[in-house]
Design a protein that fits this description.
Elements lengths: L10 E4 L3 H10 L7 E5 L16 E5 L16 H7 L3 H7 L3 E3 H14 L3 E3 L3 E7 L4 E6 L2 E5 L1 E4 L4 E2 L14 E3 L3 H4 L8 E5 L3 H14 L5 E5 L20 H9 L2 H10 L1 H4 L4 H14 L10 E4 L2 E8 L5 E7 L5 E6 L1 E4 L3 E2 L38 E4 L4 H4 L9 H13 L24 H11 L2
Helix pairs in contact: 1-12, 6-10
């Protein structure tokens, strides 16, 4: 007798990072919804290589898994503090931005307790069964069936093309590995950090603190023309609202691509506080000596065009000054690439790749509900989280929109309003006004009617 096929899940999450964890937390309270979230790793880990002492979140603590949608939810950060007996210490600390390590611990607290999260379970392949109108997921422990799938596999570190020849070299690595590999810098007497975002700033500051007194030359290179701080004005932050997301999604694809590049200061720059700490540290260490005697080099507007192993050890970085076009070579012993992350298509999608309606650049087409557009043969719901920067704008990787996106997906999957979401979230009006006839046209029309 054949074994009966298991009942399908209503929702299968692939990957458990903060965004799918948010979805799991909100789904946990939905009666009648059978959801499961799978993660290949054995435990929740959030950027473990960047949990540097003193590093803080760039969003307020309310940007937790649930609060901006459901502040009464038991998986809120405040309830975590209550569980940890830390409400009064947090109250007196008066901290709006959390230490990164505390945010990571909060997420692990939730992930370990949510019954719909399963770790050590990799989804190796996703298939579509036209006969059953269900997704079939292959895992190391068997098959799972689901009506809807949400991809939350995260992003991968970017290794720039000029460093291709040094890929895998033990002295050239991405900032994602910083804490794990910081000790390997012990023997380096010249260290170069590439990239001016928050990770680059935090690593440069950490090196100033830990290596600043032993004579090591510390260098910071970035293509950006200025070490400008992240936009953090109150009205500027309204770009991270559902209002702006809806406006951005309504724009033509070519306009969206240009906007994402132009808005780097909204989501790729370092915080003003971290840049100020760097300046304070540099100021304090140069008391009583000239600035040019300090073995520190900060060069914005400098692009690395090629990186090779040096003939006598170390590395040679061919650089070009952006404004002048002048070229020079930097010789260094170690390189930390704080060059960001990008979304990639998971290999698990390969079996259904032909059923997805990719755009002209091979990216997902994603509707406002974060559902991927598929061919007519695939009728199940395929959703993505943090892979829609090109369709939903700079708020895509922002934790402050995580709960709202998760609630949007839940409403779409269930076909009902599980969470009431606000229709207006910003003072700023991003859409153009409705076009009205020019006053002269009105006068002409009135004159013609009176003839």
């Amino acid at each position: 007798m054949d074994n009966p096929q298991p009942d399908p899940y209503d929702l299968l999450g692939v990957g458990i990072g903060p965004f799918n964890l948010s979805l799991a937390a909100l789904a946990d309270r939905v009666s009648g919804l059978d959801a499961l979230f799978c993660e290949a790793r054995e435990e929740f880990r959030w950027h473990p290589g960047m949990l540097v002492d003193g590093a803080r979140m760039q969003v307020p603590f309310l940007a937790d898994l649930v609060s901006l949608v459901d502040p009464t939810n038991p998986w809120s950060f405040l309830n975590y503090l209550r569980d940890q007996d830390r409400l009064f210490p947090f109250y007196f600390a008066e901290r709006f931005q959390l230490p990164r390590r505390e945010y990571d611990h909060y997420c692990r607290w939730a992930a370990e307790r949510l019954v719909n999260c399963r770790f050590g379970t990799a989804v190796d392949a996703l298939h579509w069964s036209a006969e059953r109108e269900l997704f079939r997921a292959e895992t190391g422990t068997g098959e799972l069936w689901a009506r809807n799938v949400v991809l939350g596999v995260g992003t991968t570190p970017v290794h720039p093309e000029p460093f291709a020849a040094l890929r895998g070299h033990p002295a050239v690595w991405h900032s994602a590995e910083y804490l794990d590999r910081r000790r390997s810098l012990t023997g380096a007497r010249d260290i170069t950090v590439v990239g001016s975002g928050q990770s680059g700033a935090e690593i440069f500051l950490d090196l100033l603190r830990t290596r600043g007194a032993d004579g090591t030359r510390l260098r910071w290179l970035t293509r950006s023309r200025a070490l400008a701080p992240m936009e953090y004005s109150k009205l500027g932050l309204e770009h991270f609202t559902p209002d702006y997301t809806r406006y951005f999604h309504s724009l033509p694809g070519g306009v969206r691509d240009v906007l994402v590049e132009a808005q780097w200061q909204l989501h790729k720059a370092a915080s003003a506080e971290t840049l100020a700490e760097i300046h304070d540290h540099l100021y304090d260490r140069t008391v009583g000596r000239p600035l040019d005697a300090d073995p520190v080099e900060i060069r914005p507007g400098t692009a690395v065009t090629e990186a090779l192993a040096g003939p006598c050890g170390g590395f040679e970085l061919a650089c070009r000054h952006t404004d002048s076009g002048a070229e020079h070579v930097v010789r260094t012993d170690a390189v930390v690439l704080a060059t960001g992350y990008r979304a990639v298509r998971p290999a698990a999608l390969d079996p259904i790749a032909e059923l997805i309606d990719w755009d002209e650049h091979g990216r997902y087409r994603v509707d406002l509900d974060h559902r991927v557009t598929t061919r007519p043969g695939l009728t199940g719901g395929l959703y993505v989280q943090n892979a829609e920067l090109h369709t939903h704008g700079v708020g895509t990787p922002d934790l402050g929109l995580g709960a709202h996106r998760a609630a949007t997906i839940l409403n779409a999957v269930t076909g009902r309003e599980i969470h009431r979401l606000p229709t207006r979230t910003a003072w700023t009006t991003f859409t153009p006004p409705v076009a009205l006839p020019h006053p002269q046209e009105g006068h002409r029309a009135a004159a013609a009617a009176n003839r």
